[in-house]
């Protein structure tokens, strides 16, 4: 992820986290079917940009599906090296170190751009600049996919189907009481490792530096740091709601063609059949934690 102006992953986290993420069942079951269709229909013969490419997963997928060229960048050299190795068989793929505040590309170049889980890793000024830069490098008529957290991601406690909510909340409260002020990420992950029933929960620091669970979006400020507990790990993010993402897209000059909830009921049912030990309740499709924004650059808005 491109994060010089936001969250940065320690070297010791990289292999473990990104391996877990790209193999995480919900990632495969929900996002991949949507992307499989998009890659097949939209990518052949196109110039593709993979923003904050991390280990190069989507760069690889774009090249595999016939992109004319694929450019990917990330601010972290360790991730760039991993992405280069992952895409070494493709002559059409170029991976480099780059800054999201000033992407190393000319204006009006790319037909398609991917921005997956990037906004949540950026401070407000960088997040705003991200959309401006996205507009700049897209060719007129170019398209972008932006995957970002939705409002329900910050106002619900997502649990495995059948979990005792009261018991889980008591366990969370107990663990939080044992954490010291301003705990490190490793201390948080260690404390949360027993939260097997939790699929997603949000935590913030109170005024005294103690971690607390929150489901009150109204008390969060745009750009505030939150800690996100998922099925696989806990990591820091910045809070942005749906309205902010839409406002910044429009302010940059991008059209919002549609907003897609890829957490469909059909995929939830299929997921539960293959993952009976986890099982997702219907609330994950009714109030999805993540949305995909389909953006485009107007054809008549050439940058001068």
Q: What do you see in this structure?
A:
The chain has 304 residues and is an alpha/beta fold. It is built from 10 helices and 12 strands. The strands form 2 sheets. A 7-stranded mixed sheet has the order 3-2-1-4-5-12-11, with helices on both faces. Strands 6, 7, 8, 9 and 10 form a 5-stranded antiparallel sheet that branches. Strand 7 (198-205) and strand 8 form a beta hairpin. Helix 2 (25-42) crosses helix 9 (265-274). The model is unreliable at 11-15 (pLDDT under 50).
Query: Mean pLDDT, rounded to whole units?
Result: 87
Largest sheet, spatial ordering of strands: 3-2-1-4-5-12-11
Shape: globular
Overall SS class: alpha/beta
Provide the fold topology.
Blueprint: H1 11-22, H2 25-42, E1 47-51, H3 57-64, E2 69-74, H4 77-86, E3 93-97, E4 110-116, H5 124-137, E5 138-149, E6 158-159, H6 165-177, H7 185-192, E7 198-205, E8 211-213, E9 225-230, E10 234-238, H8 242-251, E11 255-260, H9 265-274, H10 283-286, E12 290-296
Parallel strand pairs: 1-2, 1-4, 2-3, 4-5
Antiparallel strand pairs: 5-12, 6-7, 7-8, 7-9, 9-10, 11-12
């Amino acid at each position: 992820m491109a994060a010089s102006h936001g969250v940065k992953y320690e070297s010791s986290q990289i292999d473990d986290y990104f391996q877990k993420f790209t193999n995480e069942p919900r990632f495969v079951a929900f996002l991949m079917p949507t992307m499989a269709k998009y890659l097949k229909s939209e990518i052949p013969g196109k110039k593709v940009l993979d923003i904050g490419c991390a280990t190069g997963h989507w760069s690889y997928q774009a090249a595999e599906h016939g992109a004319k060229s694929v450019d990917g960048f990330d601010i972290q050299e360790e991730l760039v090296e991993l992405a280069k190795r992952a895409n070494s068989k493709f002559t059409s793929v170029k991976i480099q170190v780059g800054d999201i505040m000033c992407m190393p590309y000319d204006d009006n170049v790319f037909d398609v751009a991917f921005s997956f889980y990037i906004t949540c890793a950026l401070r407000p000024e960088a997040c705003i600049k991200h959309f401006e830069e996205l507009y700049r490098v897209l060719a007129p008529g170019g398209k972008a996919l932006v995957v970002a957290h939705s409002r329900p991601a910050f106002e619900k406690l997502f649990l495995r189907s059948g979990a005792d909510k009261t018991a889980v909340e008591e366990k969370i409260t107990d663990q939080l009481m044992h954490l010291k002020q301003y705990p490190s990420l490793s201390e948080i992950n260690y404390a949360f490792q027993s939260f097997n029933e939790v699929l997603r929960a949000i935590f913030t620091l109170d005024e005294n530096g103690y971690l607390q669970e929150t489901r009150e979006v109204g008390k969060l400020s745009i750009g505030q740091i939150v800690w996100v507990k998922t099925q696989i790990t806990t990591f820091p993010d910045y809070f942005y709601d749906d309205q902010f993402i839409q406002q910044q897209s429009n302010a940059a000059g991008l059209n919002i063609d549609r907003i897609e909830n890829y957490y469909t009921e059909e995929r939830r049912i299929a997921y539960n059949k293959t993952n009976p030990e986890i099982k997702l309740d219907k609330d994950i499709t009714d109030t999805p934690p993540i949305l995909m924004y389909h953006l485009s650059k107007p054809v008549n808005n050439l940058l001068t």
